[in-house]
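Q: Got a minute? One more chain.
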Amino acid sequence: MPETLKETTADKPEAVAAPAAVAPVGKPRSLWSDAWHDLRRSPLFVVSAVLIVFLLTMAVFPGLFTGADPRYADLAHHYLQKPKWGNLFQEDWFGYDIQGRSIYARVVYGARASIMVAVVVTALVTVLGTVVGMLAGYFGGWIDTILSRVTDIFFGVPFILGAMVVLTSFEERHIWVVILALAFLGWTSIARVARGSVLTIKQADYVMAAKALGASTTRILLRHILPNAIAPVIVVATIALGGYISAEATLSFLGIGLAEPTVSWGVDISSGQEQLRNAAFVLIIPSVMVSITVLAFIMLGDAVRNALDPKLR
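A: Always. Here it is, folded:
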């Protein structure tokens, strides 16, 4: 009987179940590669990235967009003359201001100061806020208490009002004075975000394992805490960058930020208020550039937040 069964099985090899095919397992993607995969397919990210690249190119290489001197004044070009909207990318495309200077040239060259202030301030507040937040969240105890109370003190100062008080104490308010004044007051939000993120991450198993293996505090902070806590910080910093452009324009409009002979959108908005009734375009055009730039960075921040936050996918 057993021989019969053996022969039957041998005669019918199809009766033996074939092993199931195992699907190839691909390499798992990290948080950043997964976020980049989502960002490339986000229309919000694509539009904002194109705008930001265009604005950065204009700030770094203004000569590619105009050959006119933004400080050259010719009173023969009166500001009451209407802009030549058909003369694309020409000196008189947006008309002239009250001193006979090309508004188009000043819009192009003004991007450098406005964006430079925003980018450098964002870099400074990101570094300072991240360091303060990481130290407070990781060590806790009295270190957390002191750093949190200092953060609360700075957070309680109205941003624009505090910047006005700081800047009025300087006789000359060049670009680095404005940058340091904004950075001095703008790090608190990032510090709070970094602290909250570190408080969650330091309880993770991989951090506990690193401590058990005797890893130094510096190694734990830089190799385990920082890479996993930086995502929300990047989101907040990206959105805040647009706010610093608005802050610089606001302070310059009030006559406290950048001033002549510096070329910036805020300076042009301040000088354009005198011609608002007779030639509104002198004020409106640099204001529109500020709005477009702020909108681009806010859109970029929203796209990055959607890509990095699993709850929003």
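A: Residues 103-139 form the longest helix (37 residues).
Q: Perfect, thanks.
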